[in-house]
């Protein structure tokens, strides 16, 4: 189950990037990674925040992660939903990386900065999570070594959500450093 802000963040990323990327007529099953993808270490977002990490961060058991990807923008998504169907908690991690893009794609740092510029109102800039980081509508956004991470977990106006995002960001940044 994707939540409203998750879909709007995803739509914003796709909309911003569609204009900067070449389009082709391949079907989804033809969009699988090939030798045309840029060289580099390919990291899965579920490696940045594991199921165990998600359960700790949310304070409750979660289902197996739902995964999706958009190779045209180099983005992979990992979504953790709670086992308790009545719970409104969730944790979504997206990772945009050059290693998953076809040559000529928009660099993850450009994507991050486009979103940062679009989120200027109400944005909370942070230090200590990577090269740059901020909290805004949709969640926590981190740029580290040209990896762009986005983490969502609820209404960013709530202090407890901001703290959960910061905790999740620390876990993701630590695991990125270990994997990269």
Write a structural description:
The chain has helices spanning 4-18, 45-48, 51-58, 108-118, 159-179; strands at 66-70, 75-80, 91-97, 124-126, 132-136, 139-144, 147-152. The chain is an alpha+beta fold and 180 residues long. It has a single domain (4-11, 40-179), classed as Protein Transport Mog1p, Chain A. It has a 7-stranded antiparallel β-sheet with strand order 1-2-3-7-6-5-4, with helices on both faces. Strand 4 (124-126) and strand 5 form a beta hairpin. Helix 3 (51-58) runs antiparallel to helix 5 (159-179). The longest helix is centred in the last third of the chain and has 21 residues, at 159-179. It is globular. The two termini are 30 Å apart.
Overall 3D geometry?
globular
CATH class: Alpha Beta
Overall SS class? alpha+beta
Mean pLDDT over the full residue set: 83
H/I helix tally: 5
Order of helices and strands: HHHEEEHEEEEH
Integer tally of domains: 1
Measure the end-to-end span: 30 Å
At CATH level 3, the topology is Protein Transport Mog1p, Chain A
> How large, in whole angstroms, is the Cα Rg?
16 Å
Per DSSP, what share of the residues sits in E-state strands of 2 or more residues?
Answer: 15-25%
Helix fraction, binned, reads 25-40%
């Amino acid at each position: 189950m994707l939540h409203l802000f998750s879909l709007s963040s995803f739509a914003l990323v796709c909309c911003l990037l569609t204009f900067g990327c070449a389009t082709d007529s391949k079907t989804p099953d033809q969009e699988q990674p090939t030798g045309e993808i840029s060289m580099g270490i390919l990291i899965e977002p579920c490696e940045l925040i594991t199921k165990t990490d998600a359960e700790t961060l949310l304070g409750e058991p979660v289902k197996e992660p739902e995964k999706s990807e958009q190779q045209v923008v180099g983005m992979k998504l990992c979504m953790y939903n709670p086992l308790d169907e009545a719970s409104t908690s969730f944790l979504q991690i997206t990772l945009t990386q050059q290693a998953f893009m076809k040559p000529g794609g928009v660099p993850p740092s450009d994507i991050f900065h486009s979103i940062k510029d679009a989120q200027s109102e109400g944005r909370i800039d942070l230090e200590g999570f990577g090269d740059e980081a901020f909290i805004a509508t949709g969640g926590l956004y981190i740029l580290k070594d040209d990896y762009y991470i986005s983490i969502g977990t609820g209404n960013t106006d709530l202090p407890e959500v901001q703290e959960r995002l910061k905790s999740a960001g620390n876990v993701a940044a630590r695991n990125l450093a270990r994997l990269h």
